[in-house]
UniProtKB/TrEMBL annotation:
Residues 2-179 form the Dehydrogenase E1 component domain. Pfam families: E1_dh (PF00676). GO terms for molecular function: oxoglutarate dehydrogenase (succinyl-transferring) activity; thiamine pyrophosphate binding. One of its GO terms (cellular component) is oxoglutarate dehydrogenase complex. This is OGDHL protein.
Amino acid sequence: VMSILLHGDAAFAGQGVVYETFHLSDLPSYTTNGTIHVVVNNQIGFTTDPRMARSSPYPTDVARVVNAPIFHVNADDPEAVMYVCSVAAEWRNTFNKDVVVDLVCYRRRGHNEMDEPMFTQPLMYKQIHKQVPVLKKYADKLIADGTVTLQEFEEEIAKYDRICEEAYTRSKDNKILHIKHWLDSPWPGFFNADGEPKSLSCPPTGISEELLTHIGNVASSVPVEDFKIHSGLSRILKARSEMTKNRLVDWALAEYMAFGSVLKEGIHVRLSGQDVERGTF
């Protein structure tokens, strides 16, 4: 398994979630053992030039926070891109660390059908309109080298166009959109062949009062003998013990009972997140 994330240049530099997940990338129990980040860098993000959008020279500078190698590659050179991607994959497999591939390219048309980039980026788009598209540039090179013939190139293009046209024609035949066919389920045997749940009734999940009392008593005790416990914690444990005795629960004790009952069934429970070791949440 290899984890690959595709980013836009503006999102990579500007969205906090990128920085946050970089910080998670090497934490015990959270690591993916290295993710390959591919940044499709059209050099203007949505419509904003870099000097108005970020304070660092490159959108990928945020990856320096984990010392990830960053490869800037000219996306108009497909062979250079392939080479860099191979190096990135090898790095990730060897060191199990994140790596970034910055595809320095351009966007030929607007951000969407309604967007006219000439309004906000006239100088850049004058240059882009003169730019030979990468497919033509690379095809001309391969034909000049004798690697492929013009006929072979045209056949490949026609083959690809045919795949797209046939898919477009088939899409018109679909009168009903079956959303459920697109949703997969992590539970084999949960749905029948039509995608409907096999049963809408839940198995009983209740447990005996005796077991709840047992979990409540364990949750309000100190597991180690002669262990000097902070007086504030003693008060919490004592209150928990009283609640169990009086057949009352608060949120924290209810959670304890839920986790405890799952553990009693031999199912591993892992708590993670803010302050879990303090037991405040």
